[in-house]
Design goal:
Number of domains of chain B: 2
Distance between the termini of chain A: 66 Å
Number of strands of chain A: 20
CATH class of the domain at 419-556 in chain A: Mainly Alpha
Number of strands of chain B: 7
Order of helices and strands of chain B: EEHEEEEEHHHHHHHHH
Largest interface: A-B, 66 and 57 residues
CATH class of the largest domain in chain B: Mainly Alpha
Radius of gyration of chain B: 21 Å
Strand order of the largest sheet of chain B: 2-1-5-3-4
CATH architecture of the largest domain in chain B: Orthogonal Bundle
CATH superfamily of the largest domain in chain B: Alpha-helical ferredoxin
Helix content of chain B: 25-40%
Structural class of chain A: alpha/beta
Shape of chain A: globular
CATH architecture of the domain at 419-556 in chain A: Up-down Bundle
Oligomer: heterodimer
Bound molecules: flavin-adenine dinucleotide, iron/sulfur cluster, FE2/S2 (inorganic) cluster
Number of helices of chain A: 16
Structural class of chain B: alpha+beta
Chain lengths: 575, 251
């Protein structure tokens, strides 16, 4: 077929080249189908590269009593039982094999005395479970996957943003987007599409996330008619940098606490003794984040509105070896030597538990041929994710998505693309250049961040959430009139326009879901409904597009088989 | 944190594309702890919405934000404004060794094509997956590389002599070292190093090591040992045999 657009054909198109996307690509490729992978940044720069602390997998190299059952139990408990039990089970069972596979592809983890993969403690994990490489685990993981993928022969489309999914009737037909560099439009025709686009942290002001985290994949799926679920569950990591202003939000890895770091308030009190006397600093993230926030609100915070995190009681050599990038980060960006003095830390928007609703076994969405995995998908983490469970999630469900996408592609005819949809998208993309007045996108983005930070943060209430909704409405109107200067050649202002569209859509989904859930569970804390509510423990909020408007429906939490229920009732066997 | 003695700084930024360009001055208000990338973002959101800059992590972990600040190749997210002389304009140019796309964004795609030439990790037959931390430590140094390509940018073989066709550059010697010295790897890349990556063209000036933000001892720990391997493999077959036997014993 001839077309006015650049067209690429694949059996499987993967959107996103982080851990999930690359793992999916490797698996699909090994099934002998043609695979393309698209990403907004250069290859190897996705969020996964920033992951620090480790990959959770019950390998039992350090604590020999660990096994998948314990990992399953910890994950479900951490997620306040809102998790998809089947995903939590598959994840716990398959993670060790996925880590071993990484090692066989060349990844080099830190070692135990007897030469196995070393594992460290992390919040909410009963046993030492996180396989790691100092504090740059993500870098090791993405390089390993990237090189494997490239040598197997994936076609990589770097610095290319997808702005619309294409459909042929009910099923997926490909995707439409633009090259960031030249601003040219491009069409991908594919029998299966896998969304691995990560999270939405850039909608908040204080965040550990990069510019890429604008919720694109969730917005693409939602607009194509797929379900989003559990969108109220946004993880605020307890420890981001708080000073100086320029570094606010940059992550301080949980590995600092895993290696023995202690939290104190300005009076020198080890305040976690009050909030979770058993687990202390290694409590789950929702608990630690709320505790720090509460200390600050009650005037026991540090000079710059945080808490002290101290690792200086450990030998300096050890700190530099186990936490090298934290050492450099504080020394270079904050003039703090963490081997001698405490860090100042506070909560930062970090991870999206909610996302695109998928089938546990195949990662398929409600749209035939459309799959999702990684942070963009929902299910494994429930109301709160445990540290280290994301990297393992990427491997386990990235692989499953790649496999199922390849199988789906083999059993389907090549879809047809409706070019009128593409013409429509092109017009939409070019409109901001044509408007002569209207404001630029940066101020709208900044106002959205202020709204989400102030009104849809760690503690929420009905009044704030309603205000947030009305502000999002105003921001949407402003965004509809946005104007862009310059040409289509590598123009970040223009790029932000579409990112902003996704952020506004997803911010609305988060806010609506948060408003609906009248209880506090995991990462979702309502000041006006501070307790767990059993009725809410049995249902999810699902966000769907209904005749063009965002609609919320409830869906029941999947019933667990009895043997797993039994498992959860058992004691964890912790020391 | 040191007080900032100036309220504002002037950034002199290269604005242009492959065909032509010029520098443009922008005044930026300073805040404590500000890095050059923050200043660029301020310019973007207040004065030049189409200013092209690459970045991701803003924490020195992804290697996206490389540029030449006051003539020195740096990560802009790790360069503090208060470390620069603020009484004069701060110049910010794209990396010189790569073709400009727009403003500070360059075409680094050549690097990705070099990487494809390097044979991937392949475990020795019948290997047992156990490793000693000491053996791992040596290789982990190379695996810290964040692909900022600053070393490629300063290497005179690429920057001044434009030998991209014959020479892989320091980043890919580091990459090769990370595979060659992997305790369980079973492939020799000596031929690739010599013929395709042109390691012989490196004359050990150490400019690459000086700019590496990850403090990788590129020249001493990667390039020189690799050069030795090439010499052994091509010119000293006996020594090669001895090494083979030794490394086989190691497992
Ligand atoms: C600082 C930090 C530290 C962390 N540490 C840990 C840790 O120690 N352990 C752990 O388990 N988890 C950790 N996490 C979480 C974990 O890193 C992420 O959840 C995970 O890497 C997400 O992987 P992903 O594959 O889903 O997406 P990503 O790695 O974020 O990749 C998303 C990809 O999608 C692409 N993309 C997005 N939108 C589009 C579009 N419209 N068109 C085309 N491409 C698009 C992007 O370019 C990118 O390639 C950390 C997170 C952060 C921020
Ligand atoms: S040491 Fe070799 S690779 Fe490094 S800059 Fe000098 S010539 Fe280039
Ligand atoms: S070796 Fe150092 S300078 Fe070169 S690309 Fe890697 S991190 Fe950058
Ligand atoms: S933005 Fe990642 S290294 Fe500078």
């Amino acid at each position: 077929m001839t077309s006015r657009y650049e067209v690429h054909e694949h059996d499987v198109l993967i959107i996103g080249a982080g851990g999930a996307g690359l793992r999916a690509a490797i698996e699909a490729l090994s099934q002998g189908v043609r695979v393309g992978i698209v990403c907004k940044s250069l290859l190897g720069k996705a969020h996964t590269v920033m992951a620090e602390g480790g990959i959770a997998a019950a390998m039992a190299n350090v604590d020999t009593s660990d096994d998948w059952r314990a990992h399953f139990r910890d994950t479900m408990r951490g997620g306040k039982f809102l998790n998809n039990w089947r995903m939590a089970q598959l994840h716990a069972q398959e993670a060790p094999e996925r880590v071993r596979e990484l090692e066989q592809w060349g990844a080099l983890f830190d070692r135990t005395e007897d030469g196995n993969i070393l594992q460290r403690a992390f919040g909410g994990h009963t046993f030492k479970r996180l396989c790691h490489v100092g504090d740059r685990t993500g870098l090791e993981m993405i390089r390993t996957l990237q090189d494997r993928g490239v040598h197997l022969g994936i076609d990589v489309y770097m610095e290319c943003t997808i702005t619309r999914l294409l459909k042929d009737g009910n099923r997926v037909a490909g995707a439409f987007g633009y090259w960031r560099e030249q601003g040219r439009f491009v069409v991908f025709r594919a029998k299966s599409v896998v969304i691995c686009t990560g999270g939405i942290g850039k909608a908040w002001k204080i965040t550990s996330n990069s510019w890429e985290y604008t919720g694109d994949g969730m917005a693409l799926a939602y607009e194509a008619g797929a379900d989003l679920m559990d969108m109220e569950f946004v993880q605020f990591h307890p420890t981001g940098m708080v000073w100086p202003p320029g570094v606010q939000g940059i992550l301080v890895t949980e590995a600092v606490r895993g290696e023995g770091g202690i939290l104190r308030n300005k009076n020198g009190e080890r305040f976690m003794e009050r909030y979770d006397p058993k687990k202390l600093e290694l409590s789950t993230r929702d608990v630690v984040a709320r505790s720090i926030y509460t200390e600050v609100r009650e005037n026991r915070g540090t000079e710059h509105g945080g808490a002290y995190l101290d690792i200086s009681h450990k030998p300096a050599d050890y700190v530099k070896r186990k936490l090298p990038s934290m050492y450099h980060q504080f020394l270079e960006l904050a003039d703090v030597d963490i081997t001698r003095e405490p860090m100042e830390v506070g909560p930062t928007c970090h991870y999206m538990m909610g996302g695109i609703r998928v089938d546990a076994e195949t990662a398929q969405t409600s749209i035939p041929g459309l799959f999702a995995a990684g942070e963009a998908a929902v299910g494994l983490h429930g109301a709160n994710r445990l540290g280290g469970n994301s990297l393992s999630d990427l491997l386990v469900f990235g692989r499953r998505a790649g496999l199922a996408a390849a199988e789906h592609a083999r059993g389907t005819e090549t879809p047809t693309i409706d070019y009128s949809h593409i013409d429509e998208s092109v017009q939409q993309m070019l409109a901001p250049f044509e408007r002569l007045d209207g404001e630029g996108p940066y101020a709208i983005h900044s106002d959205l961040q202020t709204t989400m930070q102030g009104l849809v943060g760690i503690f929420r209430c009905e009044e704030d959430l309603r205000r947030a909704l009305s502000e999002i409405e105003t921001l949407k109107e402003r965004a509809a009139r946005v104007h862009v200067e310059g040409s289509r050649l590598f123009n970040p202002g223009w790029h932000l326009v579409w990112d902003l569209h996704s952020m506004l859509t997803i911010a609305e989904a988060v806010t609506r879901s948060a408003l609906a859930r009248r209880e506090s569970r995991g990462a979702h804390s309502r000041i006006d409904y501070p307790a767990l509510d059993d009725a809410w423990g049995k249902k999810h909020n699902v966000v769907v597009r209904n005749a063009g408007t965002m609609t919320l429906v409830e869906a029941p939490v999947l019933e667990m088989p009895d043997d797993l229920k039994q498992l959860l009732a058992e004691d964890s066997g912790a020391k | 944190m040191a007080e900032v003695p100036f309220a504002e700084a002037t950034l002199q930024i290269f604005r242009g594309n492959r065909e032509d360009g010029k520098t443009v001055d922008y005044r930026v208000p300073l805040v404590p702890g500000m890095v050059v990338l923050d200043a660029l973002h301020w310019v973007q959101s207040h004065q030049a919405p189409d200013l092209a800059v690459r970045w991701n992590c803003k924490a020195g972990k992804c290697g996206s934000c490389s540029a030449e600040v006051n003539g020195r190749p740096r990560l802009t997210c790790k360069t503090r404004m208060d470390s620069l002389p603020l009484d004069q304009p701060i110049t910010i140019f794209p990396m010189k060794a790569f073709p400009v796309i727009k403003d500070l964004v360059t075409d680094v795609s050549w690097n990705f094509s070099v990487n494809r030439k390097i044979p991937p990790f392949q475990p020795r037959a019948g290997v047992v997956w156990k490793m000693d931390q000491r053996d791992v430590d040596r290789v982990q140094e190379f695996r810290k590389c964040i692909e900022c390509f600053l070393c490629q940018n300063v290497c005179h073989v690429l920057r001044d002599h434009g030998k991209q066709e014959q020479f892989g550059g320091p980043r890919f010697f580091v990459r090769t070292a990370s595979l060659e010295m992997h305790p369980l790897d079973g492939v020799s890349r000596a031929h690739v190093l010599k013929e395709e990556l042109g390691i012989g063209l490196c004359n050990i000036t150490k400019c690459c090591t000086e700019v590496c933000p990850e403090d990788i001892h590129i020249t001493d720990n990667a390039i020189i040992p690799l050069k030795e391997r090439v010499v052994d493999e091509f010119y000293d077959p006996l020594l090669r045999l001895v090494r083979k036997i030794r490394s086989a014993k190691k497992i």
